[in-house]
Amino acid sequence: MEDELSRTVDGLPGLVWTAFPDGRAEFVNRRWCEYTGLAAHEASGEGWQMAFHPDDRPALLESWRTIVASGEPSEAEARIRRFDGAYRWFLCRASPILDAVGKVVKWCGINTEIEDRKRAEDALRAHEQRFRLIVDCLPTRVVLFTPEGDVFHANRHTLEYAGATFEELNAAWTSWIHPDDRQAVVARFHASISSGEPYDAESRHRRADGVYRWFHVQGFPLRDNLGRILLWYFLQTDIDDRKQADEHLRKSAALMAKVEELSLSGSFCWRPASGSITWSEQLYRIFGIEPGTPITREVVAARYHPGDLHLLSEMIKRAQDGMDVEFEYRLLLPDGSVKYLHAQAHATRDPQGRLDYIGAVKDMTEHRQSDDALLALRAELAHLSRVNSLGALTASIAHEINQPLAGIMTNASTGLRMLSAEPPNVEGALETVRRTIRDGHRASEVIVRLRALFQKKAVTTTSVDLVEAAHEVIDLLRSEIRNRRIVLQLKTADDLPPVTGDRVQLQQVVLNLLLNALEAMNGVDDRPRRLLVKIERDDCDGVALTVTDSGVGFDPQHVGNLFDAFYTTKKEGMGIGLCVSRRIIESHGGRLWASSNAGYGATFSLSVPYRTGSTIAADLPSAMGQARCTDAARNVRNP
Ligand code: ADP
């Protein structure tokens, strides 16, 4: 029986041993001896210690002493040297054998090899360490959570950012989230943990110094082969700078939109190569198109006024050639309204050399309408000014018409007489009829000229002989001049070039100046009433006309007011003649000014250029005409 037991113990697949209650070895089995290469007697007492790795020995002995002292079963791990000198890990289990009163009478134990498990554990530990090292060194915040949602690991960056230990973070990680974001974050987090769906959201997290910064947080579950979640890893990317830039961009876009709204303008980007077009919201509004609608050439063309569609093709053609473009065109909106737009686009090239256009479109409709209203008002004023002068011409006109009428009457009665004579003087009667016709023509010519001058007529631009035009006006005033005992002197240079402009408007100015001169000499009795009209070249490519009178003159202090609207010193005056006249002359690219004479009276002078005629001809607008010469040019021309 003893033998059998001994054989069994020897055959057990472990290193079996017994020890005395004080811890000294009593027995080791055959396998123990075979494995360690030590004889049984070598192992007895304290000798067994020789089989253990010197590094493990102090800890092993310490724990063996504790076990012996406690009298409780226990275990320890240590490396045992094999007979060939190789150390392998063993789990050494010890259990006390007690007597009837519970006193330890012996210790028995078995050491089982755990080398493979130990290696696997080491490998896992090394793996984990490497993993932690990588996670810790990642330049971003990483927090690992258990499948249940507890913090498992927070990398160095996370702890440094939060200014907290792992334990503090573990205890209350949500308290680092901005109070306004917390509720949503917690709800989303739990939704992900319970559903296994990845987490993806932005939230603000508190830094060690108390500042909150925006993070993009992404959480992914790590699953085993069976699809069970082993771990959650959460990446937190700092997007605060981007957020601020976004905010900045949003603010400047809002500002830009406001500016566009206030200035009634919109903007666009256009890449001709790809055809991609981006419009600002305001531009959509100007075109009356729902914001966000994809912009194509067809969409744009559908809004163009049919009469201006050719401008769109022209603009596209110019743009494809890489030129800057600037156009004025009209839109015809579905409700039938017309908008006037001014578009300007500047070409740039991207690094690949592709063309990019950045442009602005301004809605000129209101501007245009007020311009039109202004033009209409000025035309009305100009007409009023002419009609106003009609009164002053009445006597002259009556005389001009009376003369031929009197002639007609005389001729008609002479003719009657000649026809009723016996025999009738047919030859003589024919002559009187011819004279009657001639006088009739004369009267109607006067009327035609008057009508031309006082009719409301659209402005026409032609080549005007200023001498001839001035003569016509003077002719209308001749009898008036005579009646007022005024000595008229007319000096005109030969071979004056024609000026380009509106004949009636220019005549109106001459008429205004002459009537003013006549009126200025009304009360003059102590000196000759002289009127000098001179037409000659001036020294800057123009034709100058001056009207000099010997009238009352004006206070040089008021020379600046003479051309103001409604400035008058006359009882019945309206004060619009000179104001309208100056506008007319300026619209011809010329200037009109006044000066006091050395002796008595005043001189009013106008000058109209003849060499820039083509510019004026092209630019002279409809109705009353608006100054289109550049400010620079006008400054040069007007004193
Ligand atoms: P109105 O003749 O109705 O007063 P105008 O605009 O033609 O309006 O003239 C404005 C003012 O300029 C006149 O009231 C007058 O004071 C002054 N003025 C115009 N022409 C002369 C002139 N030849 N001599 C003196 N003053 C003049």
TrEMBL record:
- Class of enzymatic activity (EC top level): transferase
Q: Which organism is it from?
A: Paraburkholderia ultramafica
Q: What positions does the domain Histidine kinase occupy?
A: 396-612
| PAC domain boundaries | 74-126, 199-251, 325-376
Cite the Gene3D superfamilies for this sequence: 1.10.287.130, 2.10.70.100, Histidine kinase-like ATPase, C-terminal domain (3.30.565.10), PAS domain (3.30.450.20)
Protein known as: histidine kinase
Membrane spanning residue stretches: none
User: Record's Pfam families?
Assistant: HATPase_c, HisKA, PAS_3
Organism phylogeny = Bacteria, Pseudomonadati, Pseudomonadota, Betaproteobacteria, Burkholderiales
